[in-house]
Amino acid sequence: MKFYILGTYSEESFEAFVNNPDQDRKAVVNALSSAMGASFSDIEFLRGPYDFIVTIEADSFETVAAVKMAVEAQGVGTVDIFCLLYTSPSPRDATLS
Fold it and tell me: Which residues of the chain have pLDDT under 50?
C-alpha cells in the first residue's frame, strides 16, 4: 500500500536544517523507512501548514505507524499518516473502442 506522511519540523529540527542545508535528508528517510520494513519513494519540501510530504510503501498501517513513532522519537517534529486507498486509472490505460 502507498502512504503519504505529512509533517512539520520541530524548532530544533528546523534550526539543524538551517545550520546544515547540505545534509541528505532523503538518505536519512530512506534508511529509517528501510529499518522499519517500509520502502521509501520520495520526499518533497512544502510551504504552508506542513513542511514536508513523504511517500512510502508498506504492507500495513502498523509498519508506517512504526516509522511515524521513530521519526517523532528523534525529535524531528510531528507527522500525520494518510493511506492511498484508491488510484484512478491513468488515461494511458484507457482503451478506445
Answer: 95-97
SS3 88: coil
> In the structure grid, which three cell numbers stand for residue 21, read together?
542545508
Phi/psi zone of residue 36: left (φ > 0), alpha (ψ -120 to 50 degrees), beta? alpha
Tell me the C-alpha to C-alpha distance, in Å, between residue 62 and each of 56, 69, 92: 13, 10, 33
Model pLDDT for residues 43-70, shown as the tens digit of each residue: 898 999 998 898 999 998 889 888 888 8
Q: Please provide residue 72's backbone torsions phi and psi, each rounded to the nearest 5 degrees.
A: -65, -35
Phi, psi of 80, deg, nearest 5: -120, 140
Q: Quick one: DSSP state of residue 95?
A: -
Query: What is the residue-wise DSSP string for 12-31?
Result: HHHHHHHH-TTS-HHHHHHH
Separation CA 19–CA 13 (nearest Å):
10
